[in-house]
Amino acid sequence: MFAFLLGRLGMLLPTLFGLTLLTFFLVRLLPGDPVSSMLGIMAADTTLRDALTAQMGLDRPLPLQYVRYLAALSQGDLGQSIATGEPVLAAFFQRFPATLELTLAAMGLALLAGIPLGTLAAARRDSLIDRGIMALALTGYSMPIYWWGLLAILFFSVGLGEIAPAWALPVSGRIAVEFDPDPLTGFMLVDSFLSEETGALRSALEHLLLPSLVLGTLPLAVIARMTRSSVLEIMREDYVRAARAKGLSPARVLVAHVLRNALTPIVTVAGLLVSVLLGGAVLTETIFAWPGIGRWMIEAVWQRDYPVLQGGLLLIALLVILVNFLVDVLHGVLNPRIRHGT
């Protein structure tokens, strides 16, 4: 097991180095520059422009800028936002709980709905239920997040607001403006629960429901399809036939013998879907004005805020790598053949 962990950790360093190269140089391929964004109508002033460019170190050759970036990065310094002057690392962790809360809610919804739906489809193979569930999964997988988000707003907020206003869901922010729970953890559900304000928790849940539904649709579809395939594969195993021959009920065979052994690939897929959720959070947070990492990054693109873009992309990529590493470890624990290389 130690050799397995050491091998996985050894792959992290070259991956991180490659990420620093990509984030540094790809960000500079964006049209425009931060100096023009900061100066606005004064960008035509050549003297002022050159002075600000030199002050920010953007007049140096790119390789030298990259070396200085690596030197600062080795000390844990991701720089400061060009637009606000705020340290990038502090700004990231200030907004990260909002994105993490949204991501966990979306993944929880995907797992709670996707695994039962996939299991039901497998148990009723080739039936109308199976075809209906798989058709819905294919629709959810194919629908772009921005389009599904707009449809959800029209139906669950605008439409319900006209038919049943009490059931209409909010479409922006994390909690209603009349509530102001203390940010003890950064997670609005926890902070509103700890708050003594009546109705704060309900408001936080209502604000979280619609964006998590939109963000969780794609992973829900993937998990449902993966669960169906995995369950059908396990149902053909000899030990499942033996369990049936012993007279065990179909429900017990399905839960105790089939589903438990079918969870290994589902765990792997769920971990890999974290990267999809973090990528989708950029669009979801923009549509629903969710104050998380995705919206922060979009604002940095418009402002050509190089330190924010570099630091944000690197930290998000690092989180995805760590999640995948944990999935590899968990997969090795669940399946000894993987960690022994067999």
What can you tell me about this protein's structure?
The protein has one domain (88-339): MetI-like (MetI-like fold), CATH 1.10.3720.10. The chain is 75% helix and 0% strand. It has helices at 2-10, 12-27, 34-39, 46-55, 62-74, 88-123, 128-142, 145-163, 188-194, 200-235, 238-245, 250-287, 293-303, 306-334, 336-339. Helix 6 runs antiparallel to helix 12 (250-287), helix 11 packs across helix 12 and helix 12 (250-287) runs parallel beside helix 13.
Strand-helix topology:
Layout: H1 2-10, H2 12-27, H3 34-39, H4 46-55, H5 62-74, H6 88-123, H7 128-142, H8 145-163, H9 188-194, H10 200-235, H11 238-245, H12 250-287, H13 293-303, H14 306-334, H15 336-339
Helix pairs in contact: 1-14, 2-5, 2-14, 6-7, 6-10, 6-12, 7-10, 8-10, 8-12, 9-10, 10-12, 11-12, 12-13, 12-14, 13-14
